[in-house]
Write a structure and sequence with these properties.
- There is one protein chain.
- Helices cover 17% and strands 36% of the residues.
- It is an alpha+beta fold and 252 residues long.
- The protein has a single domain, classed as Deoxyribonuclease I, Chain A (4-Layer Sandwich), CATH 3.60.10.
């Protein structure tokens, strides 16, 4: 069994407005994940004390990390990260298209790595989509297209996860590759899991989609005093097994 966690950490600024990288790391550590996908990570930003949050959290967890900056302002970076102590390699990291009529929207991106679990190579893609529904649809369509998951680099098993800023029935979720299953809608997942806002969770905007050979054994959002304070999102945590040994390629 392998455990994966996706978490929008809100720059490590909690609902009590306190900046605390250690608190976020403790929330993650309490779930004992093997793979961690983070969104809203600051690296070298004055507003959060110049800390490399990806490196700081990875160090506390005893993991290596990959970081992709969706937004760069001189030396200040802000984006997404994937952490793990398992062997991994970068597949791709890059920007996602924005809405052509709304040029002042925050830039978005995706980070895609391959992680070796025993004899299996699992692909994990972490993303954080925009706030405007049309923008989300453009970005999800790009992820399904030839430069990302519709291209030759894709292999199964595959997990796509992150903060989509959209509900399960949204156009953005429907635009992702149709062979990916919504893990929170599976019988093993039970009811849909609200992740936002963390203090009183009402909406599920954090998601996990998986190829057919990723078997979701359990999925939950930990709700306690720590998770309600550490960020404005709750973590989404899933336990999974992989049904088949790694195949030579998609469809082989």
């Amino acid at each position: 069994m392998t455990r994966i966690l996706t978490y929008n950490i809100h720059r490590c600024v909690g609902t009590d407005r306190r900046l605390d990288v250690g608190r976020v790391a403790d929330v993650i550590a309490a779930q004992r994940p093997d793979i961690v996908a983070l969104q809203e990570v600051d690296v070298g930003c004055a507003r959060t004390g110049g800390v490399d949050q990806a490196q700081a959290i990875a160090g506390r967890l005893g993991m290596a990390f990959r970081f992709h900056a969706a937004l760069k302002v001189e030396e200040e970076l802000y984006g997404d990260a994937i952490l793990t102590a398992l062997p991994e390699r970068l597949v791709r990291a890059g920007p996602l298209p924005g809405h052509p009529g709304l040029r002042r929207l925050e830039p978005r991106g995706a980070l895609w790595v391959e992680i070796t679990i025993g004899d299996v190579r699992l692909q994990v893609l972490n993303t954080h989509l925009g706030l405007v529904p049309r923008e989300q649809l453009i970005q999800a369509t790009a992820l399904a297209g030839p430069h990302w998951l519709g291209g030759p680099d894709r292999r199964d098993p595959l997990i796509v996860l992150g903060d989509l800023n959209a509900g399960p029935r949204s156009a953005a979720c429907r635009a992702l590759p149709h062979d990916l299953r919504d893990a929170t809608a599976s019988p093993r997942g039970g009811r849909r899991l609200a992740t936002f806002p963390s203090a009183v969770p009402l909406r599920q905007i954090d998601h996990l989609f998986a190829s057919a050979d990723v078997i979701i054994e359990a999925i939950h959002t930990p709700r306690d005093a720590a998770t309600r304070r550490a960020s404005d999102h709750l973590p989404l945590v899933a336990d999974f097994t992989i049904a088949t040994a790694m195949r030579g390629g998609r469809g082989s």
